[in-house]
Design a protein that fits this description.
The chain has three helices and six strands; from the N terminus they run H-E-H-H-E-E-E-E-E. By secondary structure, the protein is an alpha+beta fold. It has a four-stranded mixed sheet. Strands 2-5 form a two-stranded antiparallel ribbon.
């Protein structure tokens, strides 16, 4: 039988940390931090996730425009699946980490 740690890894993550290019600017960072964008990712990326996964997404640029951005999974805590209650944290990623 699996131990408690193995069972928890197979469930929904408590928190996932996702980075975006720092060069994308403050506007992109602000739009990512919204509850609606977090909800969008929880819905569209529901299921198994792994550190290093990259997602090509877009973020509102205002006035009907969008900005393309590559989001990268940097950490997953508590499980290996993104679920409706998974907390999504965003952090800028330096050019050295590209």
């Amino acid at each position: 039988m699996a131990n408690g740690q193995e069972r928890s890894r197979a469930g929904n993550a408590d928190r996932i940390t996702v980075t975006y290019p720092a060069t994308a600017g403050d506007h992109v960072g602000s739009n990512l931090q919204t509850d609606s964008y977090r909800g969008y990712l929880r819905t569209t990326k529901a299921g198994t996730a792994a550190v290093g996964d990259e997602w090509e997404e877009f973020v509102s640029g205002g006035c009907g425009s969008t900005t393309d951005v590559v989001l990268r999974v940097e950490a997953i805590e508590g499980g290996d699946r993104i679920g409706e209650k998974t907390e999504v944290a965003f952090e800028p990623r330096s050019e050295n980490d590209e």
